[in-house]
Write a structure and sequence with these properties.
The structure holds two protein chains of two kinds. Chain A is mostly beta strands. Chain A has helices at 16-22, 79-82, 133-136, 155-158; strands spanning 26-32, 35-40, 44-48, 63-69, 72-78, 95-101, 104-110, 112-118, 139-144, 149-153. In chain A, strand 1 and strand 2 form a beta hairpin. Chain B starts with a helix and ends with a helix. The chains are: A mainly beta, B alpha+beta.
């Protein structure tokens, strides 16, 4: 992923949340069950290839386990489980999108990591009313890209369960 | 430059002032201690001098006036009285305040201290000497330029300030100045001041180093040929030493945490009009800085509570026939990787009726809950959030916040708090905290295909059972137990507790690994599939999303880079209580479990065929058997069964119900005493439960001790002695002829008291039992004499050691032996027990070993015993 994010002037008119999202018009995109999702680039610490994950028995099912990131212990959250999707096929391994939240690192387990998408010029639209409540609670909005929808998830609500 | 001097001045002054409070309080008690006055005088003088030098006029004038008063005291112009001490303390407080303000802002706070100065000066004038008119900054710079080595300076300045008495003071101050000068020098040479952050970051680095070392060790393990083996071994050793060294730099005596307490107690005594004597023992006990910081506030709070709520007013004490001076005693000591801090007062104790009433009023407890709780449980409610029983809220201790915070703070660092109280006698709070939090040694095990770490501190031993010995694991209604030497060890499959799939069918022909772990007073066995090495692990906190799981106390990274969970054995014990009890407990009650984990008893529950279930302490049970109906024979009106080449007499636990023949095979609870056994025929073995055994109702029925609430049901606890007697009436008489030795048993646990009593009476000893050492003291003072005294160590109010110390002063001690019988063990405890006069130190509870020891001592005693 590209680390060279071009800083844009924050647009002055928006309300708070959009302001924040607009701060960098860049989102790390990834796929979970063929859905294109994204998190703000400034929330992402790094992206990792499949890792050895230690299971944590008796933890909530969304928690895949723990992984060792250069001596730092990171909690891995299975996004498929978190979003109520079927598990990944056995022969496939999840990629890790590591984010910081509340002074802790979490790894979001995703099927595949895509590009960093620059959405300057686009407006973040509120999630459609009909969206599954499960999804709605973690979605901060949707960008309509040329060929598909880009759903932006809010890492803090994603990790608050 | 200025900044640097200021910092230096602040650091040094703060350090000196911290000492000062205690010195001043000590001075009040020993007004004639010249050395003490001189030392206090010097400290204040140094501060005053430096103030002049760096131009802190306000601070300087307060110090100056305070110094004048001290100077007069030193010269015996002014008597050391409570009032003058108070004035000095006020002065010192103001100095501290000003210094704190200075530290915060970098500027000297502008305050009007004329009233305080006026009071101090008035005190000086009252000595009839010259008034202190000199300005604060009058000290000559040359004497102050080397204030860091203050003693010389004090010699320069003192004479001109307190002229009239130069001669008389000349002698003592000079010599004390000399000695302290030497002392100061050596301390300065041997120690340096290091910023705490530096030490903390060092500790983190050492943690990382330990991890890397572990990784390297892993790499060369099993490869003796490796050229890296030798250097890595060396690295290993150096790392270990380094780790110990850094840990040591972080260790501080607990005295640092309670150095403020004498002053606090003195002020409280003044405010409340009580007379309080604070005794502090074991202040050299060291613990990790982070732990020390964490307990400072809780400790202060509890002492304040003892002084304010715990101790009665002087009049009340007189009325109760106690000494006017109330005692608060702090005691700290090491015990098996933990530090124990006891805070004891000899006050009025907790009024549990009032606590109960208050708890109900505050909605902490319902009326019906309250009626089911023991006094101890009620008393421990003072730790519940939102509680304060003082009739009037005083300015001294809190407003109903506090004790719950105390408990939370201590539990946060992995400690426990336990409170015992007796009306009219006093209250003891016992805090148990870990020595350090950072690096621990842990045993790595595998279960359900995953690795876990178990802190070595909780591991008692490892038992490996060969596949062909698997049958030694016995079952009581789905619950497995193992007879480890003389006791039944409940077993828990770690994989089941963790909800992992049991390993595919290697079950039957595979060795069994049992990790015996200790939780409070209880042990249980964790069955794991594999036991690996022990490793030094760096404990890392559990992440936010996992912290609610009671099974884990942390995470760590192993040498090979794997992340593994550190198991919390106490959490598992709580969980396993649920497994044993049919899985009806949840996480929530796991917390409750912890509260009384200290005094639970493992009970065997069975269906008697009657209306209520019955229970017996598992430790009294030798075995559980099932006999096919047709093997049970009758001789006369008694049932017997052939058992291990002998006849086992059987008794129905309930004559009217279990006698029926519809139970086949017949479950039997076997009791054994020496080489004799008897079996109790029950209808069905139900369960094993770990619960606090509180007999709520004494029973009139033969064979029943009383009724307890177990698993939320009223359950009769049987009197094994009754049945044993029924089965073999000669059982006791044979022995009774042998001996009439008298034994006194002291134990605060009702269960152990009964157990020990039963065992001894079965052997024909005459037994008296007391539930507290203070009761034993009363008995002995009333003229009762015994051949042997068996005492628990850990007891509220007066512990076993104190009792032994007391007893050693008694004439009886020449012919009465003491045995310590305790659930604690450890070489230091044993040696302490030996020191205070215990003839033997035994752990609970090996009946055979215990009896042979009792026999040995009573036999020695026998000739005298016969005369008596």
């Amino acid at each position: 992923m590209s680390q060279s994010a071009t800083l844009q002037e924050p647009s002055s008119t928006q309300n708070g949340i959009e302001n924040q999202l607009d701060y960098l018009n860049q989102y790390v995109s990834f796929f979970v069950d063929e859905q294109l999702l994204g998190v703000p680039v400034n929330a992402v610490q790094e992206v990792l290839n499949p890792q050895v994950i230690t299971r944590t028995p008796k933890a909530k099912t969304e928690i895949a386990g723990l992984l060792n990131l250069r001596g730092q212990i990171v909690t891995a959250v299975d996004l498929r489980k978190r979003l109520g999707l079927p598990p990944l096929a056995d022969d496939q391994q999840s990629m890790n999108v590591v984010v910081r939240y509340n002074n802790e690192s979490y790894s979001l387990l995703v099927d595949e990591v895509g590009d960093v998408i620059n959405v300057s010029g686009e407006t973040l639209q509120p999630p459609p009313q009909t969206l599954d409540p499960h999804w709605k609670s973690v979605t901060s909005g949707v960008f309509r890209l040329e060929n598909r929808l880009f759903v932006i998830v809010d890492e803090s609500s994603l990790l608050d369960f | 430059m200025d900044e640097e001097i200021l910092q230096e001045f602040l650091a040094e002054s703060m350090e000196n002032l911290a000492q000062l409070d205690n010195e001043i309080v000590a001075l009040e008690k020993q007004p004639d201690n010249d050395a003490l006055i001189a030392s206090i005088f010097r400290t204040i003088h140094t501060i005053k001098g430096t103030c002049g030098f760096i131009g802190l006029t306000g601070l300087g004038s307060v110090a100056h006036s305070t110094e004048n008063v001290l100077g007069l005291m030193r010269d015996r112009e002014l008597p050391v009285t409570s009032a003058s001490i108070s004035a000095i303390l006020e002065g010192v407080d103001e100095i501290k305040d000003l210094l704190a303000g200075l530290e915060a802002t970098g500027e000297e706070p502008v305050r009007d201290n004329s009233a305080l100065i006026g009071r101090l000066d008035k005190l000086s004038e009252s000595a009839g000497q010259q008034s202190a008119e000199e300005g604060p900054g009058e000290d000559s710079p040359e004497s102050d330029s080397n204030t860091v080595s203050a003693p010389e300076a004090s010699d320069n300045v003192t004479p001109e300030e307190v002229k009239p008495n130069v001669e008389s003071t000349q002698t003592s101050p000079v010599e004390t100045a000399d000695t302290t000068d030497a002392a100061k020098k050596s301390v300065a040479d041997l120690s340096i001041r290091v910023n705490v952050e530096v030490v903390d970051s060092l500790m983190n680095l050492v943690g990382e180093l330990v991890l890397t070392r572990n990784q390297l060790l892993q790499m060369v393990r099993g490869d003796d040929e490796s050229i890296y083996a030798a250097p890595i071994l060396h690295l290993n050793r150096v790392t270990t030493d380094l780790q110990e060294g850094v840990m040591k730099t972080r260790m501080q005596p607990i005295g640092n945490a309670w150095s403020k307490l004498p002053r606090l107690v003195r002020d409280l005594a003044q405010q409340t009009g009580k007379q309080i004597d604070l005794e502090m023992r074991g202040d050299e006990t060291e613990l990790d800085r982070t732990v020390l910081d964490a307990i400072k506030d809780p400790l202060t709070h509890m002492v304040r509570n003892s002084a304010d709520h715990g101790l009665e007013s002087t009049e009340d004490r007189q009325a109760a026939g106690k000494s006017e001076v109330g005692k608060i005693r702090l005691n700290a000591f090491h015990e098996g990787g933990h530090v124990i801090i006891c805070i004891e007062d000899d006050g009025g104790g907790i009024n549990s009726d009032r606590v109960r009433q208050k708890a109900i009023e505050n909605g902490i407890l319902t009326e019906s809950d309250a009626s089911n709780m023991s006094e101890k449980e009620i008393n421990n409610l003072v730790f519940a959030p939102g509680f304060s029983t003082a009739q009037q809220i005083s300015s001294v201790s809190g407003r109903g916040v506090g004790m719950d915070v105390v408990k939370t703070q201590i539990e946060r660092i992995g400690g426990t708090v336990d409170l015992t109280s007796r009306r009219g006698v006093g209250t003891t709070v016992r805090i148990k905290i870990p020595l350090t939090l950072a690096i621990v040694s842990a045993l790595v095990v595998e279960s359900g295909g995953l690795s876990f770490a178990i802190p070595q501190l909780t591991v008692v031993e490892l038992v490996r059972l060969a596949a062909e010995d698997r049958h030694k694991i016995e079952k009581i209604n789905q619950n497995e137990v193992f007879r480890l030497r003389d006791r039944l060890l409940p077993l828990v499959h770690l994989d089941r507790v963790l909800g992992l799939h049991e390993e595919a069918d290697n079950g039957e022909d595979c060795d069994v690994n049992i990790v015996v772990v200790q939780v409070g007073d209880d042990q249980f066995g964790l069955i794991v599939s594999e036991v690996f090495d022990t490793e030094e692990i760096v404990v890392k906190p559990v992440g936010q999303l996992l912290k609610d799981i009671a099974l884990y106390q942390g995470t760590t990274i192993l040498g090979d880079g794997r992340v593994i969970m550190i198991l919390d054995v106490a959490g598992i014990a709580a969980q396993f209580g649920g497994v044993v009890g049919g899985g009806d407990r949840d996480q929530h009650s796991a917390e409750d479990d912890k509260d009384w984990a200290g005094d639970t008893t493992t009970l065997l529950l069975f269906d008697s065929g009657g209306a209520t279930n019955m229970a017996v302490p598992l430790s009294l049970v030798a075995r559980l058997e099932e006999f096919p109906r047709n093997t049970i024979e009758r001789t006369g009106d008694r049932m017997v069964v052939q058992y291990r080449d002998n006849l086992l007499p059987l008794l129905p636990v309930n004559e009217y119900a279990t006698n029926s023949d519809d139970v086949d095979p017949q479950p039997v609870v076997v009791f054994q005493e020496g080489d004799r056994s008897m079996g109790l025929a029950v209808r069905e073995i139900l369960d094993i439960r770990e619960e606090p055994l509180v007999i709520r109702m004494q029973s009139q029925r033969p064979g029943v001790l009383g009724t307890a609430i177990i698993n939320d049901k009223a359950t009769d606890v049987i009197d094994t002695q009754y049945y044993v007697e029924q089965a073999d009436p000669d059982w006791f008489q044979k022995n009774v002829e042998q001996t009439t030795s008298r034994v006194l048993v002291i134990d605060d646990s009702i269960f152990f008291r009964q157990l020990v009593t039963t065992v001894l009476e079965a052997e024909g000893y005459r037994v008296n039992a007391c539930h507290a050492a203070v009761d034993a003291v009363e008995l002995i003072e009333s003229g009762e004499s015994y051949d042997l005294i068996v005492s628990d160590i850990e007891m509220p109010m007066m512990d076993g050691y104190e009792f032994a110390e007391w007893f050693a002063q008694r004439p009886e001690s020449s012919h009465t032996k003491l045995i310590a019988l305790t659930s604690l063990s450890g070489p230091t405890l044993e040696s302490r027990a030996a020191e205070v006069g215990f003839a033997r130190f035994m752990t609970k509870f090996n009946a055979a070993q215990f009896l042979s020891c009792v026999k040995e001592f009573c036999h020695q005693r026998q000739p005298q015993g016969a005369i008596a």
